[in-house]
Known about the structure:
Structural class: mainly alpha
Largest sheet: 2 strands, antiparallel
Oligomer: single chain
Amino acid sequence: MKIYTRTGDDGTTGLLGRDRVPKHDLRVEAYGSVDELNAVLGVVHAHDTGKLFGGLLPSLQSSLFDVGAELATVDTKMLEKLARIADADVAKLESEIDRLEADLAPLTRFVLPGGTPLAASLHHARTVCRRAERRVTALAARENVSAVLVRWLNRLADLLFVMARWANSKAGVADQVWEPRRGN
């Protein structure tokens, strides 16, 4: 199978099913941002040389493929065949957040992104996740998008933030807090 098909040379792309839409379509922006997040999580996984997060990162990446497939599908019959994000998946993210936060000092101030390369890449993933969330909610304002999918992305961004703090903590690197500048 060839990697190129030339079908997108006209500025359109195919959704799962038969529909074609412009490459700048809100749906394409949404699942494209999810795909970008998945790639950034690949970088995070490469930085996790100590295997702090075990199978969590590949599991999140697999879930992001499910999210992308759901977003790339408008055919209701095809949607029924897909693995879809459910409330139980949101609960799993919340459980993981609670588990990691139990090891951390309570948050009292804003934290600057950074620290170890692993933590910094997790902060980067968090911001890409927030962009994906914004793209998905923009799509949801115009078309039918599962509300649980939006909640899952919101919780995933929270988890990535906590993972960054936890990675720094395990490396003995303190959170760097934001010191607001004083006005004149």
